[in-house]
Task: inverse folding
């Protein structure tokens, strides 16, 4: 009996340890959110700027001191992030869905054995490598082909991001397409549909929510990518006039300027506000994915 | 009016035939388009990988691997050391939370919050994690840039990967494992430790390898935590000296950061070649890690199928 009570005590103590491990995840996420919020809110409280100014003004001249009094309009950075991400999505999406359909509907054997592993390997390639390749190959090519001054451009950033998010969107979409029940297809083929009709009219609409999840995951990755984009975007604090002109974005501003800004100064805090904005964007993506999967009738 | 009826019938047949023909033609065209798209990307990705690896080793010189400021030996060592430190922190925590989510969590609000927390962590921009690490592990502790802070920051990024794979692995086990164990009178913890966890070790290993692969290439989270410099004295015998290789409280630049640094603060004349080499080494590491992860997961598949026979 004594042995029994020892075992039960052990069972209970491990239950507590494991539960603590689970709750640690909440604590960590809240700690992250708290510190980002605590720091990022300073622009609006300590230095007394309006949210409107931060989001929509394009005058970026924060003072690198505790006195404040500068301007913290981050519209150029925000616009840079949004435009590069959307353009990247536009470039990547047709290819991603095309490859996802190819590896599931058209050539499943080849898809599973060859394409799937390759796509998975490319998910894991570090983003600096993409950025480095963009810098040494893409930027000079753009400079020559379009005859621009430097080659650093929205286009270069979007292409790098497009290649980066391609594997994410492809593998999530392929999973979604695979999970469409087989009898959907059999029924459509039985009615005499061609394969393209089955794909276009049956499979894609049925897998719509899964593909959308992949798109959002890809967008979240693109929004948060820092160094790869910073290497090719040019880091010029002006609105881009065309996709060939350089601009800047939220993440490259943080990566480039955080190291030099005085801790707690207006400049430093304004960069924290950008990080807070990025945090909200990725939170928003998570909630959007939950909303989609719940409307799909799948419970988590 | 049989003639007119016949005419209508003929017309309809013709129209249907045309529709079918068009559908078939479109089907062929689209199949072709998919082949072209898939092939294009396959070729692009393969060219991409070979280009990086070939270019990296094109100007290879043994001095580029040297363990001093001219080579990247120190960076390579820092990278490996940092990944090991990060795994030492994130594997136990990830396992605990994975086990919790799979075995202990009851459906409800708290579980949902934990799930959203894990998802938030996994989709956090790494630069944001880097800032958090800088504030909490460097500024608040009043220390210099150091490897340990970098390892903590990277752990935040690898935690969700390990946690999710552990959870998925435990959940995918057949019910019989658990029932059998409970039937023998085992407690929940005994069941988890003696039956469930051993059965999922290969899948958990796959998750750990994937997390390590991600940690190898991480740069943005390390810029403000592990620092952008490295100074190792390989003859140092004092573990607490700031140049001892195994002292985790020293600045430690990694391979990925070296690539970034050669872009922004290129001092050495061969910095481009060095960055090429770093990129190539990172690529090879990623390949090794993904292939071994795949090998392990295929190995378990075989084992599982064998068990079912």
Result:
């Amino acid at each position: 009996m004594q042995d029994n009570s020892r075992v039960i005590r052990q069972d209970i103590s491990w239950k507590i340890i494991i539960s603590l491990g689970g709750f640690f995840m909440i604590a960590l996420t809240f700690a992250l959110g708290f510190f980002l919020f605590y720091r990022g809110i300073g622009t609006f409280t300590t230095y007394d700027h309006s949210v409107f100014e931060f989001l929509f003004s394009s005058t970026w001249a924060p003072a690198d001191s505790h006195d404040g009094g500068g301007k913290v309009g981050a519209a150029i950075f925000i616009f840079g992030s949004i435009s590069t991400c959307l353009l990247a999505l536009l470039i990547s999406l047709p290819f991603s869905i095309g490859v996802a359909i190819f590896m599931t509907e058209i050539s499943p054997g080849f898809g599973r054995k060859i394409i799937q592993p390759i796509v998975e390997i490319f998910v894991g390639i570090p983003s600096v490598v993409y950025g480095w390749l963009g810098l040494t190959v893409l930027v000079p090519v753009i400079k020559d082909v379009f005859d621009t001054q430097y080659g650093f451009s929205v286009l270069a950033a979007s292409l790098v991001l497009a290649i980066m998010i391609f594997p994410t969107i492809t593998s999530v979409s392929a999973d979604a397409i695979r999970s469409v029940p087989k009898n959907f297809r059999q029924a459509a083929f039985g009615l005499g549909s061609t394969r393209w009709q089955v794909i276009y009219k049956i499979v894609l609409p049925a897998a719509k929510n899964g593909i959308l999840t992949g798109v959002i995951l890809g967008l979240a990755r693109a929004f948060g990518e820092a160094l790869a984009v910073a290497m090719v975007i040019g880091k010029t604090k002006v609105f881009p006039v065309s996709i060939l002109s350089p601009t800047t974005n939220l993440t490259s501003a943080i990566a480039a300027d955080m190291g030099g800004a005085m801790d707690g100064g207006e400049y430093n805090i304004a960069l924290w506000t950008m990080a807070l904005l990025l945090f909200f964007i990725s939170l928003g993506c998570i909630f959007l994915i939950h909303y989609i999967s719940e409307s799909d009738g799948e419970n988590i | 009016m049989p003639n007119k009826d016949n005419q209508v019938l003929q017309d309809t047949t013709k129209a249907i035939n045309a529709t079918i023909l068009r559908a078939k033609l479109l089907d062929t065209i689209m199949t072709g388009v998919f082949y072209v798209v898939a092939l294009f990307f396959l070729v692009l990705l393969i060219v991409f990988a070979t280009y990086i690896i070939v270019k990296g080793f094109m100007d290879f010189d043994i001095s580029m691997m040297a363990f001093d400021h001219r080579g990247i030996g120190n960076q390579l060592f820092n990278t490996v050391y940092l990944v090991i430190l990060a795994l030492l922190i994130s594997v136990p925590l990830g396992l605990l939370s994975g086990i919790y989510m799979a075995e202990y969590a009851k459906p409800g609000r708290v579980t949902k919050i934990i799930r959203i927390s894990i998802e938030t962590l996994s989709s956090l921009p790494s630069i944001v994690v880097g800032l958090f690490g800088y504030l909490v592990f460097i500024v608040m502790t009043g220390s210099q840039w150091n490897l340990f802070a970098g390892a903590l920051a990277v752990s935040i990024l690898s935690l969700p990967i390990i946690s999710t794979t552990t959870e998925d692995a435990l959940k995918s086990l057949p019910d019989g494992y658990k029932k059998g164990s409970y039937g023998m009178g085992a407690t929940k913890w005994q069941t988890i430790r003696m039956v469930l966890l051993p059965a999922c070790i290969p899948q958990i290993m796959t998750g750990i390898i994937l997390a390590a692969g991600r940690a190898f290439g991480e740069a943005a989270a390390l810029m403000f935590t592990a620092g952008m410099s490295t100074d190792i004295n390989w003859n140092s015998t004092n573990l607490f000296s700031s140049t001892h290789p195994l002292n985790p409280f020293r600045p430690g630049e990694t391979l990925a950061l070296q690539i970034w640094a050669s872009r922004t603060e290129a001092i050495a004349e061969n910095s481009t070649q060095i960055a090429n080499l770093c990129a190539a080494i990172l690529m090879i590491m990623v390949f090794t890690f993904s292939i071994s992860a795949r090998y392990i997961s295929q190995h378990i598949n075989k084992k599982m199928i064998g068990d079912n026979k």
Remarks:
- Residues 2-58 of chain B form the longest helix (57 residues).
